[in-house]
Structure formats: structure tokens, C-alpha cells
Amino acid sequence: MERRWTCTMKLTPLERSWALYDVGNSAFVLMVSTIMPIYFKNLTSAAGVADYNSTAWWSYAVAISTLLAALLGPTLGNLADKRGWKRGLYALFVVGGAITCALLGFSPTWLIFLAVFVVAKVFFSTSLVFYDSMLPDVTTAERVDMVSSTGYAWGYLGSCIPFVACLVLVLTAEQTGIGTMRAIILAFLITAVWWAVLSVPLYGRYRQTHRNTGELAGMRELGQVVREIIQHKKIRLYLLAYFFYIDGVFTIIEMATSYGKDVGIGDTDLVLALLLTQVVAFPFAILFGRLAGKFATESLLQICIAGYFFIAVFALQLDKAWEFWFLAVCVAVFQGAIQALSRSYFARIIPAEKSGAYFGFYDIFGKGASFFGAVVLGVATQIFSTSRAGVVALALLFPLGLWLLRKSMKIPVKM
After folding, report:
1. What is the DSSP-derived secondary structure letter of residue 412?
2. What are the φ/ψ torsions at residue 258 (nearest 5 degrees)?
3. What rounded mean pLDDT belongs to the chain?
4. Would you say the pTM of this structure is higher than 0.70?
């Protein structure tokens, strides 16, 4: 399927406010993938925990948080659809996430830090259920790929502002007399404030126009959505495809820093390479958003999946700093595109009035994949005492996801 680019690139005020939340929450994502694992490694090292065990503990924390968020998503998403509560629940989970993010800096031990991180990650992940499900209310079907991609693009570039400020604060802590611990506390506070403040425009402008007016309620309504997904072969196959390919994507994003440290990459190279990823990801997310106006979204997703398969295979032999930098650039090319296009494609094939419940299940497949990937990586790392073992299994998930996506592509959309 080939589409003409029929919409302008200029965002409406509501679309702009929606994209700004990506800028806000991406600061937390960047902290989770860079500074947090390094800080956690320092806490565990001081407590005498082996490097490979600390990587496993971090994997388990990621897995637990994603599992909890996945369990909450469909129920709360359905409630938001029925009661018109998307805006209120979005605000609740953003505030909860920002508060727990700020508290991370005050965690005295690695176990307490890990527990607070799990809570913060649950708040963050659940806020995305409402944020993603707002997309059908925010824009039109013709603009959904562009708007979704713009959100990720702005998020990658905008999140660099608080991150660089935090990085400078931490790296110059001793020279300025602030002290490392105080700098860490300030870094988490800056991230929390940035996240909360940039969530305000969407809260102010968003109004829920699509509501589920069906007579069923509660678990019966969720059961109906499950039956619809099972009966709708295109959605069912797409969610299965998404589960497998996004498993590898999320695990690579969340575990890159820990994996890099395990194979001997220095802290400075790790942080700067991942910062480069954010900057390079910006134009490529925009590019793929524009390409989606001319080519089928499914075709672009296939390119992204193939790219990630190459990344996973290349990571198996990674042991030099330049290789990590090269890998960071490769990830940047596809990272925003695969997430943005997956989100916008799903929004296009589901009923808009049930977007909260459907995105709740979309979140289950995404978070379930992240849980599965993190557990696989953690268990394989402990069994074989090397982080490379889990990467082999992750690499195989991309061809499986690609095969299922191609099967889904053959089925027409029906509502």
C-alpha cells in the first residue's frame, strides 16, 4: 500500500501539547538507561555485590515493574474509556512518577533504590497507557504516523536538555564543592520537575472525545475486548508480532548500559554514546514519520525489525568502545521509528472509542515482552556468568516478529 503525503507538517496546539509529554517523560527514560544503572552499579559494588549479579538484579527490577504495569494497564484503560477519566488518570500517574523519581536520590542502599525504582517505573509505564490512548482524540488517521513520530523525535532531542544539565552537575560535583551525593539528588529532582512540568500542557488542552458507551462494565467489558482481539485476526497477529520484536527493542534500550559495563566499556563512553543516540534519533524519527506518508507503515516496520536484528547480532562480539559508539548510532536510526510506527499503526487498526482498553492490552504485550526479555537476559547472565548469553536468544526474536507481522499485513483492516 502506498499513500500520498496529504497533511501538513505543522502541528496543532493539541498535537504539540501531546508531543511535549514525550519530551517530559523521555528525560526519565534517558536517566533509566544511562545514569541510573551506573549509579546502581556503584551502590552494589560498594555493598560487595558481583557485577554480573547486579546486572541480574537490575534485570529483575525492570521485569517486576513492567509486569505490574502490564497488569494495571487494561483495567485502568477500560475504566478511562467508560468514565472519561483518561485526563485524570494520566495526571495521577504522572504526579506519582515524578514524586518517586525525586525520591530515588534519597535511597541509602541498593535494595531501597531498587524498590523505589520499581514504583517509579510502574507510574511511568502506566501513564503511557493513557498518553498513547489519547492519540485518536489528538489527531486524525491521516496525521497519526507523523504526530506519533514527532512525539518520539521531540522526546529524544528535548530530553537531552535536563540530561546534560544533570551530567554536568554530577561530573563537576567535586570541583564545584557540591559533592557527588548531593549532585545525584539534584539530578533526580531536575528530572522529576522536567517530567511533571512538561505534562501540564496536555492536561490543560486534552478533552476525551471518544468514549465507550457500551452497556457492559468492568471485567465483562474487558472480556469483550479480549474476545474481539481473539476474533480479529489482524489485531491478534499484529500484537503477537509486536510482542516478539519489541521484546528485543526494549531489552536493548533498558539493558544497554549494564551490558556495556559488563563487557568493559567505560562510564564516560557509555554515557556519551547513549547521549549521541538521543541526538541522532531525532532526525531519523522525523524522517520515518515523513516516509510513512508515502510508504506503507508495515513496510517501514519491516525495515526497522531487520535493522534491530543486525544490531543484536553485532552486539554479540562487542568489546571495544568504538563498537559501542557504532552500535549506539545504529540503534538511533531505528529506535524512535519502530516505537512510533508501532504505536500509530495500532491506533489505526483499533476502534477509537475503545482505545484505552485496547492500548491497555497493547501495553501488556509491550510490557510482557520487556518482562520476558529482561528475565531471559538476567537468567542467562547468571547461568553462564556472561551477559552475552542472553543476547543470542534476543536476536532470534526479531525474525519471529517479522514473520508474524508479514502474516498480519495480508489481512485487511475491519472495525
Report:
1. P
2. -60, -40
3. 82
4. yes
